[in-house]
Amino acid sequence: MQPSLDSLRNILEADCLLTDSDSLSQYGKDWTNQYTPAPLAIALPKTTEQVAAIVQWANKHSVALVPSGGRTGLSGGAVAEHGELVIALDKMNQVIAFESATQQVKCQAGVITEQLQQFAEENDLYYPVDFASSGSSQIGGNIATNAGGIKVIRYGLTRDWIMGLTVVTGKGEVLELNAGLIKNATGYDLRHLFIGSEGTLGIVTEATIKLTRQPKNLTVLLLAIPQLDKVKELLNTFQKEVDLTAFEFFSEEALLKVMPHHNLPRPVETEAPFYCLLEFDATSDDILENALGCFESGLEQEFILDGVMSQSQQQAAELWKYREYISETISSRRPYKNDISVTPDKVSEFLGRVNNIVAEHYPEFEVIWFGHIGDGNLHLNILAPDDMDYAEFVKACENVNPLIFEVLRELGGSISAEHGVGLLKKPYLNYTRTEAEINYMKGIKAAFDPNNIMNPGKLF
To answer: Coiled-coil ranges per the record (predicted)?
Structure first.
């Protein structure tokens, strides 16, 4: 029996509790396609105190909660399908404070990633955590999934930029974690438990984030390569001479989708099975010369077939389109996605083995590869034949998942590199985490959320 919402209305302002069908559908899901949203209601708090009061209300009435950010996730982590109350942080979208001396900004968790990037730029600084959904993803969601993106090889993950958090635990207690301190050697750093916790321990309401200097003259090299086992040599060659800010890859199959969809010309004359996109900070002529030297060496040693270097910021942006437009281009085909990772030295072996698995079991499926190869994060996108029923397609992909994930386990990889576990990857957690690890994780959740109201059914 669903509880009355009357007492909840006393906590929130009149327009901050939504029960209409459009809102329930909009806020009750993320970018996954497999689940039907069915939340109880949508709460839109404006302060940490309101969030705490909602969590206390939920404990009292035994109501499950689903935290909701920009809902751009691909693992079902923000899906409410069993009458949960969704706590959406859209109205908690303010920059609270900025300290130029320490280059730290404090903001509410509903701030859009791109909003924070623009704030940094306005202050001659840079927030480097970047990905395709930066225009709609929220900082709180990025923290909850420890989001990565295209700049990880140089700048790391979201975790590396979080100096402090305000959180509301599953008990409804407010914790101030680390408070922006650079040095703090006082035992367990609870901040890092909440980063990547997918809303299962509590809700991040505010974050103190460090910024850095803006990159100068970002330059892009797009290279055609003959085979992926040359990537390690390619990466080593360039890393010795230039500080890469991005090292991406995509397949010829991906390129063939993007070019006609966006009316783009072939970026280089030579057709190749794979392409790498390298970005670096060309702050001097010496760095440019070093990069060109690496390129020429690669041509001589035949681990590069062809390439093009941007000559302006506009050209750099044009070259990025070949990589950044892939997800949007294939979205109409409703791809089955696997966001996976291995160490960079094992990328070639992993990709080859997975290609063999898919070719053996589903030769009629198209496979589109792209990803952040510099940090070992690969995006495997499987496209169904046009005449195949979608539910049948998903089931077929799920049948082959254990074969793919067993290869991951052998190579010491992860079933989820940057989108979290949520509902979609929950059945496969044991391929990356041991039974002992999972038991400790469950114990941590019980300590912060003893009544199991925080995003229940996700992760475990």
So the answer is: none
